[in-house]
Design a protein that fits this description.
The chain is α/β, with parallel strands linked by helices. A five-stranded parallel sheet has the order 12-15-18-11-19. A four-stranded mixed sheet has the order 1-2-4-3. The protein has a four-stranded mixed sheet with strand order 5-8-9-10, with helices on both faces. The mean pLDDT is 92.
Length: 504
Amino acid sequence: MVTKAITATTVGINAFKITAEVDVINSLPNMSIVGLPDSAVSEAKERVRSAIKNSGFTFPTGRVVVNLAPADIRKEGTNFDLPIAIGILKEEGIEIPESETTAFLGELSLDGSLRKINGVLPLVTGLKESGINTVFVPYENAKEAALAEGIHVLGAKDLREIVAHFSDTPIKETKVDIHKYLEENAYIDYLHDFKEVKGQHKAKKALEIAAAGGHNVLMSGSPGSGKTMMAKCMASILPPLELQEALELTKIYSISGLLSPDEPLMTKRPYRSVHHTASPNGIIGGGTNPKPGEITLAHRGVLFLDEMVEFPRQVLEVLRQPLEDGEVTISRTKNTIKYPCKFILIGAMNPCPCGYLGDKEKQCTCTDIQIKRYQSRLSGPLLDRIDLIINVPRLSTEELVNIKTEAEPSSKIRERVIKARKIQSERYKEEGIFTNSELTAPMIKKYCKLDKDSEEIMRQAAQIYQLSGRKYNRILKIARTIADIAGEKDIKKEHLTQALQYRG
């Protein structure tokens, strides 16, 4: 008799229902797993055999054949251990009822205990969408799995506990109030605060606009002008995550194995700082079964590239398409996967090789050819995708010494950012987007309407600065964000002129 146990596998951040079919044949003792398993799945036969024996149950004496159906989907990971073991125990007469609405996920230790696995939230969410109403998971994954509302989550510590559940000792269901959890954990004590940054009012305002509208920023200035410090402070002014954003991030970090069992839900926006030795695959993701890269790990948060021009040209150019589309498509021979990557890019660079071009205190020693070669490392198409380009001058000795008053704290800036984000969230609730940076061309026409004076300003700017269509639209998005921060319903000419100043 063939027994079955339902489980799931992930492809990208999407999950597919998988059925583990088990049959025992009268033949020499052996065990085989078919259905496109990877090495981790194939090795399950040794883990399952020992786990069943050491849990006090008997392992079949014949040949055990396990089929993971459908067989045309590649199976990866260790979450198939538990369903395979359940199928074998059913074959041995253990009273575990057949059910089309119960699923099993988990890796088995040799002693029968259940180990934590990656990607539980997308797996459970996919199972719920396919009609499953009850799922067994490792105890360490129970809180994360319970974030998927509308499904009963049972966290077990070992194989014996699951068997006992169907006889006389039911496992207590794990429940998490996701809205309450997100609200209680929204406040974070940040390491860096804008009150520690002296001067640089224009740069701070640009970063406030970037945080409010989700815009990309490039800061250029002499060494020691505060570019890196301000980028680190950016995390302290970002608004709290919306529930949908938190779930998106949790899925990504769960698949990547970066989610803490004590913190089942991502409650703060990510801040990823990448070294200039990073490879293209490290930035966009890769591998035989493509895993999320830095741009996906920075989804709904910040990706900071310090010394941006020191990154290899190939690495910078792979950012062009993700910056435009908000998602990255990774194609391999066996499959093609899409990952979301709607992040704020913050780049920092020196204006020249020596770093002192335009500095008031120290003279630049670079030749014109050196400066041109250095600045040309950032291509025109990439700069076209950056919204705000600002100069960050080094503070003079007099300014450093005489500034006594404390700068505006991040908490005050964050209040304005949250207010602007709420305006955008309400405005775009029917569009499925959260920020002005996500506006498409038709949405720009709808939400960024200009009066006659403003149209004339943009017409002149387009002629003088030879604006491309992309630059033109990005200026309108920035102006829309500046108007939101000011609490204005319509874009006015002062918002447009300010937006043009931030284009460098």
